[in-house]
């Protein structure tokens, strides 16, 4: 057979073709040979000579299909109760048949497409809509006919039946799933050739009504459920319903409807009863009814801003339980209790958020907010500060101090890590830093640290949490200790070379001024005891040789020494402060010493000296010869009967235990000073960059810059601005509430 | 001897001894550091010239590097030489 166009007898060819087509559309059995022949028949008709028969072929095929579908419709319409299954059977057959036909007519399809294109060219610039009827591919044509002649006339009927079946399914009755699914999806498939709005028919004919019915059903259903059940049970039922509905939509509907149906259900069963759920929410959160909460979370999550009330309730609950826990602290070791309480609060609720609320970010955030609110609770409205930074610092101190109960390195590290967790919630980080620095200084100077590694790791943890600037003083302190070790070694060599015997075992810590939180207030004049003088002189020579241009200030109140007591039954070795040492050394030459002698020879100021003497009296090393307040004429004698179970011990002193209240106050004042400087620096930085700025904006900028260290009060910022105006860094502009930077 | 000192652990702080409070170049206190540094102390040392003027080391180096011909002390205009 040749492909050349030739004269074709249309009637005869069509006759043959029709027979096959009839069989194809009903999915009859067709031999391969016949199929090929018909395929070429189509070709032949399309390229026939002298006139191609393509248009005629199209028309007769259309006519045939219309007749066929019309016939089917009559059968379907007459099927009564089994209308849907009849429709389903025909549609399955017809849609497949149509697809095969499309293949059989593929040459014609090509032909039509080509024509369409040239037509479009011809009509360029004209209204393409005016063409009476666009020719379609055969497959499309077939589906279009089905739509026009099957669906349209039956649409009401179909709709009603489908909805009735859905309702039956909801009620739990059996339905023919496959039939329903196929019928519903035929509404989409029939439009598969359309380029846009493929779903329109499906939506118009079915989806809208379906959603309406769903809504109505669940409105009733939820009302019914609410009558018989309490909130908790209701939520359980609703969740079950929602799950069923999801399955149902997978079973019947087109994928585009899944979420719409679900949304509709949620709206009717959850969103409409929001106020009820929210009102129940409080008790559930308060009583921590996990199952109910998890149900409620699941229900409210998909609804816009549905969770907000829950989040608020949870936050309030955490804050309340946190405050209760903190307020209930009493007895010994409050710092440790405080940190423990915060930790257990955090652990409890983060566990709850993980298991009940699926680690939802909203809740995690509320936990953070709540924790920081608990931690930063002010003592009272009068007090503008809270104790948390101090407590936390004290807890860290207790952990890092040498203590009898040995805990392993890793355990200690864990505990310090927990401290950091609490630390992150603290607003006034600078107060913590101050306390921490003071305590660190004490630990380092008095050698109380349990391990230097732990100290360093804690500083690094703080650095990670708060940045280099926050910890650089702490770092400096830490490195000063290393530098001092080095110096001690070098000094030992130096004195060996000079062949001087210092007479005592000497070591020193040389600290950088400014990095250590050591007030100068405690400084007192002090005449160095003879025994120590040589060491001091030698070290000063050594230091000025090694570091010219530096001056040493001796902090005698921090120095400690070891004394060997030979005058008692057993020899004792005691650790003392330098001042105690000086007093005790006075007794070397005489048995009784007058207070005025002590004053004159040691030059220690009144306050320190009386404290020192008192500490020695309290520990029974010396005795006061006459009762009464100490005056210049009071004399003291050495207690020659002193005894102690241990041979090596430390004289506990009131000197080292500075009164805590005073220390706390000092620290707070120091922090306030620091804050003022910090704020002024921040203001100048901002103004230098912006030149001119409104008051409010400036305040906001300052607060945001300071946030990582502390939350400044507006009044403090205002004072700082005033101070800067006085110092002529800033000036007010002619506009109200505006400042300008003065270069 | 009734009482004998066995050992003594001293504590001292150090600071710069300069003939002025402020660095003549950056005008910040010698107790502080130059504007480029963050921490006073060993990391930001002072240096003395033979003319007896003192500056932050970083400050005077910056100044000297900016001078093309003669390296003079910014305070007294004598030739700058580091004091040994």
Automatic annotation (TrEMBL), chain A:
Example of a GO cellular component annotation carried by this entry = Cul2-RING ubiquitin ligase complex
Q: Name one GO molecular function term.
A: protein-macromolecule adaptor activity
Keyword Membrane applies? no
**Which pathway does the database say it acts in?**
Protein modification; protein ubiquitination
Predominant place of localization:
nucleus
Which segments of the protein form a coiled coil according to its record? none
| Domain Cullin family profile residues, every copy | 387-617
* SMART domains, sorted: CULLIN, Cullin_Nedd8
Gene Ontology BP term (one): protein ubiquitination
Q: Which UniProt keywords apply?
A: Acetylation, Isopeptide bond, Nucleus, Phosphoprotein, Ubl conjugation, Ubl conjugation pathway
What PROSITE patterns does the record point to?
CULLIN_1, CULLIN_2
Which compartments does it reside in?
Answer: Nucleus
The UniProt similarity line reads: Belongs to the cullin family.
Annotated protein name in UniProt: Cullin-2
Q: Which organism is it from?
A: Strongylocentrotus purpuratus
Please spell out the taxonomic lineage of the organism that makes this protein. Answer: Eukaryota, Metazoa, Echinodermata, Eleutherozoa, Echinozoa
Automatic annotation (TrEMBL), chain B:
Q: Origin, by domain of life? A: Eukaryota
Cellular localisation: Nucleus
Q: GO terms for CC?
A: anaphase-promoting complex; nucleus
InterPro entries (UniProt xref): RING-box_E3_Ubiquitin_Ligase (IPR051031), RING-H2_APC11 (IPR024991), Znf_RING (IPR001841), Znf_RING/FYVE/PHD (IPR013083)
Q: Which SUPFAM superfamilies match?
A: RING/U-box
Record-annotated RING-type domain positions: 34-77
Q: Which GO terms describe its biological process?
A: anaphase-promoting complex-dependent catabolic process; cell division; positive regulation of mitotic metaphase/anaphase transition; protein ubiquitination; ubiquitin-dependent protein catabolic process
Which PROSITE patterns does this UniProt record tie to the protein? ZF_RING_2
Among the GO molecular function terms of this UniProt record, one is: ubiquitin protein ligase activity
Pathway, according to UniProt? Protein modification; protein ubiquitination
Q: Does the keyword Zinc apply?
A: yes
For this UniProt record, the keywords arranged alphabetically read as follows:
Cell cycle, Cell division, Metal-binding, Mitosis, Nucleus, Ubl conjugation pathway, Zinc, Zinc-finger
Q: What family does this chain come from, according to its entry?
A: Belongs to the RING-box family.
Instruction: Outline the subunit composition.
Output: The mammalian APC/C is composed at least of 14 distinct subunits ANAPC1, ANAPC2, CDC27/APC3, ANAPC4, ANAPC5, CDC16/APC6, ANAPC7, CDC23/APC8, ANAPC10, ANAPC11, CDC26/APC12, ANAPC13, ANAPC15 and ANAPC16 that assemble into a complex of at least 19 chains with a combined molecular mass of around 1.2 MDa; APC/C interacts with FZR1 and FBXO5. Interacts with the cullin domain of ANAPC2. Interacts with UBE2D2.
Summarizing the function annotation, the protein's role is:
Together with the cullin protein ANAPC2, constitutes the catalytic component of the anaphase promoting complex/cyclosome (APC/C), a cell cycle-regulated E3 ubiquitin ligase that controls progression through mitosis and the G1 phase of the cell cycle. The APC/C complex acts by mediating ubiquitination and subsequent degradation of target proteins: it mainly mediates the formation of 'Lys-11'-linked polyubiquitin chains and, to a lower extent, the formation of 'Lys-48'- and 'Lys-63'-linked polyubiquitin chains.
Indicate what this protein is called per its UniProt record. Answer: Anaphase-promoting complex subunit 11
User: What is the species of this protein?
Assistant: Strongylocentrotus purpuratus (Purple sea urchin)
